[in-house]
Design a protein that fits this description.
The chain is an all-alpha fold. It contains four helices and no strands. Helix 1 (26-40) runs antiparallel to helix 2 and helix 1 (26-40) runs parallel beside helix 3 (61-87). It is elongated.
């Protein structure tokens, strides 16, 4: 009995190879910068600058929806944080700050998930997740 290694069948030419890796596209980079701001405190600012710069370019429809979604995420989260800081004097601001942090994190993660599939955000102008 002889052992012969099996050779894989050749792939038909012209068939695309699936990308099963991590795609570092623009919305993913911005979302990761937003999430990184929980540790660095400043990377979110880099993310919003990149989002505004890249939104002015000619982007595919799915990417444009992500950029709108991420720009709104930053500014609404920033505004909620300011309100939370001001209201922390009367202690109601602490839950507002926690809710804003969770809201931004969830929206960033949702954007990463959809961006990896290159799917547009269903409603980029919503306040909901």
């Amino acid at each position: 009995m002889t052992d012969t290694p099996e050779t894989p069948a050749p792939k038909p030419s012209g068939s695309p190879t699936p990308n099963n890796g991590f795609d570092a596209n623009r919305p993913t980079i911005i979302s990761l910068l937003y999430l990184g701001s929980y540790f660095t405190g400043i990377s979110g600012l880099v993310g919003i600058v990149l989002a505004h710069v890249w939104s002015g370019e000619d982007n595919p429809e799915w990417m444009a929806s992500h950029l709108t979604y991420l720009i709104r995420t930053f500014w609404i989260g920033f505004l909620a944080s300011i309100v939370g800081i001001v209201l922390s004097i009367v202690l109601i601001g602490i839950p507002i700050l926690m809710a804003a942090a969770i809201w931004v994190a969830v929206r960033s993660i949702m954007s990463i998930i959809k961006a990896q599939k290159q799917e547009p955000m269903p409603d980029p102008e919503t306040l909901l997740i």
